[in-house]
Amino acid sequence: MAPQSLKIDNARYVLTLDGERRIIRDGSILVERDRIARVGKAGELAGVSADRVIDGRQFLVTPGFVNGHMHISYAHAVRGIFPDELASPLVHVFKLQAEMTEDEEYHTSLLGIVELLRNGTVCFLDPGSTKHPDACRQAYEDSGIRVILGECVTDREAPFTLPCYSTKEAIARTASFLAKWHGSVGGKVSAWAMPFSPETCTAELLRGLRQLVDEHHTGLTLHHGSGPQARKDYAARHGLRPTEYLESIGVLGPNVLLAHALGIDDAEIDCVARTGAAVTMCPVTAAKGGRGVPENGRMPELLSKGVRVALGCDSPNNSNHLDPIRTMNMAAIQYKDARQDTRQIPAEAALEMGTRLGAQALGLGDQLGSIEVGKKADFVLFDTARPEWQALWNPINNLVYNADGRSVHTVVIDGRVVVDAYRQSFVDESRLFGKVQEIGEALQARTGTAFPRSRWPMV
Ligand SMILES: [Zn+2]
User: Fold this and answer.
1) pTM of the predicted model, to two decimals?
2) How far is the CA of 260 from the centre of ligand 1 (A)?
3) Region 297-312: what's the mean pLDDT?
4) I want to staple 193 with a disulfide (CB 3.0 to 4.6 A). Which of 17, 28, 209, 280 is the partner?
């Protein structure tokens, strides 16, 4: 149970991410039940007591981080199996995912959630990977993390194993998923429509799903890339650029989130900005996958047009790590190098995408993403009593360029301390790690998935 009140007393810095982006030195936060009741200088809250008081002197406090594209399911059990030179692991990914049993998916999802939480993530969007949400419900409940879930649907053939239905059935399945899950688990689980991509769905399906999410006041996400081949295909078929096609069929809007969005040009950025759609970018996946960020990455232009951009890690077999700090770091340094211009994506912009702007992209900006009175009590305490935090003059530079998720000391969601002094208490981690290793062994054997375990001799 969460205490009725919690106070973070005299924190070294509080990065509020409020409207003025105030950084409060020697700051205190008072939480009452699930909400932030007061934020200010420690002196202003000196006489305020609480059921639990955490001495904040060694901590830097940030809003909880949001992950706008995180395939949680099979990957933790087989993380790292794909060799670098494998151009696209997608065929293997979908085969492994399709094989997951309820029990396997529960354990691998639980491990994913443990890793997300221990790195300071309070909310993630799974773009339709979870096959057995009923089996995973206990993991959502026990951990306290916020989740945006959906059922992956398509109504056209794809080059890999995706769930394919008639248009009518895909819409009906999504409708029943929304009815069952949206607002469930104490409001922590939201449900969205999750068509896989414009290439695997008809215009009729995409339009039908958009209408459905408008009626349910929820969101829709889909994978969206552009690039030379896609441009040719869309030009031949529709006489339009890929993003123009989405706009022309009436799919884009404020409750629509495009994932990746690599390879889009200025006219397509205008489509996104004009319609108010949001974007999740996965900078580590882009770099590791050799996606050509210098040519195809348009994060600075999207931000300058006012588009809400969230960050994601794609999957534990794409970015491989689930650390929001390393993801922000990549966003901040990747564009400086790509454009040979150190003014690109300042550390502050990266932090905004991980918190305030990311929460807005997920439609949760009124609840999450900043430390302000009335918002949900979701925040992270970073331990500055560690070598990588020394010396500490500019806390945002230290957070984005020096630190990583290993200095996440304490995480609070809804006023509940879910990570307390580096530890979570809802699962026995060493048993879970052993279980997931066993699942990985069995899964590779069952699916006949075999990659060399190393290029070097393993003796
Ligand atoms: Zn994805």
Assistant:
1) 0.97
2) 8
3) 98
4) 209
